[in-house]
Amino acid sequence: MKGRRHDITMLRESKLADSVVKHRDIFDGYVLYEDPAYGIQPVLVSGFKGARVSMKEKKFNKMMSSVWEAVEWQFGHLKTQFALIDYKKSLKIRLSPVGKYVLVSMLLLNCHCCHYGGN
């Protein structure tokens, strides 16, 4: 995969949703929260949109928006602390262990937060 890709393309190519469905025994009760543009899939949940959103749906959207924002902020922090995972010239999906780099970076960032405090 070369260059930036839309999230839906990455989701399809990663087969993450398929893996969650395949391993229902492990992921029972869990879903992936994604953008409404991804369409309806058994394991994808997204915010409510439209003019007739109920108060309960608005509350859900607000709650999930704050979670989404925190996750996006953490990915930004991760890329700041571990620039290698954002270095496009050296990271090629299926040609380098990108997933392992990201997982190790997340682990180290969590260790850093535990030791020094922070989010």
TrEMBL record:
Residues 2-110 form the DDE Tnp4 domain. InterPro entries: HARBI1_dom. Keywords: Metal-binding. GO terms for molecular function: metal ion binding. Its cofactor is a divalent metal cation. This is DDE Tnp4 domain-containing protein.
